[in-house]
Amino acid sequence: MKAPSSAPAPAAAAPPAEEPRWLTDEEQRVWRAYIEAATLLEDHMDRQLQRDAGMPHVYYGLLVKLAESPDRRLRMTELARHAKITRSRLSHAVARLERNGWVRREDCPSDKRGQFAVLTDAGHEVLRRSAPGHVALVRRAVFDRLTPQQQKSLGEIMQIIAEGLQPEEAGADLPWLR
After folding, report:
1. Which of 37, 34, 57, 38 lies closest to 47, judged by CA?
2. What is the rounded distance in angstroms from the CA atom of residue 31 to the CA atom of residue 101?
3. Which stretches of the chain are assigned E, i.e. beta strand?
4. What is the pTM of this model?
5. Cα-to-chain-centroid distance, residue 62
6. pLDDT at 29 over 90
7. Can you tell me the distance from the alpha carbon of 174 to that of 157, in angstroms, rounded to the nearest whole number?
8. More confident residue, 16 or 102
9. What percentage of the chain carries pLDDT values higher than 70?
């Protein structure tokens, strides 16, 4: 039976999908080791910072970035980009940091919609007090376990991965633009 002339023509059959490039046993071992180590390390840092400073690791990273910025201030959009988080998540984090008295927001004089996050003296002090414990944890968890050559290799490997994941095209779906 013929399809009526008003009906759309049937779509051409899709080309067969390529077979995925499955991970080898060794690649699978490396991938799972990476995932396990990254998850454990993030949890370890979160627990230490919650215990010692009453904040999760992501908040500590925000305070560090502000402390390293000129005048301890940064546009909220830039802070979100550096933290690799959505603007909504950043806004929530900064609201909590504001309640603690560690950060304040200031309007941007050149952009009525823009805001700055500013590290307060109290925020700088909590960062100063919590940094020694945090760096000790990082040293014990990562650097003390590796030889200098392994440290160098790890840095090079992570740099390659990070550079490969940075979208270069305009309009990329980036968390800090959401």
Report:
1. 57
2. 41
3. 73-75, 103-108, 111-119
4. 0.81
5. 10
6. yes
7. 22
8. 102
9. 85
